[in-house]
Amino acid sequence: MNKECIKTLYENKSINVEIEAGITVKIKEDVFRPGTVRVHLPAPINASWLKEGRLIDSEPMFRMMSVEDYPQRSAYFNEIMSENTPFSIVYAFNSEHTYTEPDISLIDHTPQKSFAKEEIAKFSAAGHCGCESYTALPFDRVTIKDVAGEKGLKFKDSYKHFLKKGGIDTDTTDALKARGTLARKIYDLIVNEYTATEDETLNMAFVSMCRMCGIPARWQGGWAMSDQSESPSAPDMSKQPAASGMSEASKPGCTQNAVSHDWALIHLLPYGWIYVDCEFAKKAGNEKIPGTDILLKDYFFGNIDPCMVPTASAPSADLYPAKDYPRADEIFNTRGEVELIPDKMTGEGHYDGYGLNCNEFESAVIINVLNIS
Predict the structure, then answer these.
(1) pTM here?
(2) Which of 153, 243, 277, 323 is the most buried (most CB within 10 A)?
(3) Alpha helix locations (H) across 43-172?
């Protein structure tokens, strides 16, 4: 996380960060075979805080890119290769955030969206947590159909038992009007007491638990700055954004390795959609925003790191065009995906082709802060 940008957002109540983000993927030398290589590299999705998005470079030039609101957006490459060369792409955009400090009492006394219980029951029985259609901005519309199609967010009995142990009965919360108090209680329970399983993250669990309690909730994932400040290393990344040599990742002109990350959004009137990040909150523990007395865990109920890049709005969603072979990462869209179809004329390799797993290619992501205002 970028704590200095978080501090700037908290102190100034708004921030505009000009960012370049790039990813490079290269097949490992002992895996590569001449032939057709098909690659998906993650692309920024449509998000309310991203402004003036633009493509800086692509090497080689991608064949197509899925639309901005595609659940897991990517740039698609399809190349016939005789030599093993990397695939890379670099984007630039402005990240604009306004600080939100939710007033729980105000939320509790503001009428919230109602829910059709029969629809919730229908999709909960199918293994999904459903909710009615609700809208903030035109591209934020979510319907029952959208929710039912989310493969990675499931209704789990373990969630129900965990909430009940924490004093929340999901069978009666539809009558609870104090939705702000309820949302914060779920957040605190997860940050302080919940341990994620192998097939989920804390924010996935938070989204599902909120939906179980009648709170509209959504998931997003993408890239975040790592805690390491050293210069990034990438496999032959000739097109990476250039760093100015400054070593602090919070300073304009500094490039830093990025990591996969996810976060949540919940819809609470009168604020509309607000951001929540249980993962970073748990990681922060009792740490405070630098130079302040504000706990980071309080900041992350309403806000996220301004330097994050969203590449997915639904976990486990399909790519476009679809892969012919299994994904290297079935849940997120942050490392890239590679399919290798070796040249049959060489007499080498797997004639039918296959999808590479994470151990068969190198993937490096960088985020470069160009300017902060």
Answers:
(1) 0.86
(2) 277
(3) 104-108, 117-125, 144-148, 157-165
